[in-house]
Amino acid sequence: MGLRETNYPEGFMLPLVEEFYTIQGEGYHAGEAAWFIRLGGCDVGCNWCDSRFSWDPDMFPLVETDKIISNAVSSGTKSVVVTGGEPLLWNLDYLCSGLKKFNICTFIETSGAYPLSGTWDWICLSPKKNMPPVGNICNEADELKVIIENRDDFEWAEKHRKMVEPACRLFLQPEWSRFDIIVPEIVEYVKKNPWWKISLQAHKYMHIP
Prior knowledge:
The protein is an alpha/beta fold and 209 residues long.
């Protein structure tokens, strides 16, 4: 039985890893303030993942979603980013509807490996080869962010560029541990394929979450 079948299906409780107010460091909204909600659970298993600590949802307490919503509202934020782990392991309808009652914009960062739930102002799709996106999330994505670890990943990026809508913003992001090696290749690739932009993990340079 998978994680989605063993959780609370209504989404009234969620495995909360951490929540914090910070500056977004990646992609289209880099530099903007946002409240982050990191949920536990991921079986995509990327070898370079920088949040492996979030993979096992049993390590984190199930928290009432109303409390999670209340914490976000109390922060004074105008937008919330839901991330993981893989947040779509969980039903996010209730979380989003609660945030919307307070006019908070809802963003999600997901691999798309599980069906989409929730109501989103911004969907950042970061597809992974281990478990490709399912359903129609490619059509719903506002942003496509592909992690580049080696040259083969450019082909993966182009495959998904052709699957998203023309208005979707396109980003290539160097895998952090191979930054010095792969950045020159990404730079040259974007110069030849200017529909892409480069996403850097600015929060790591600023030493913030």
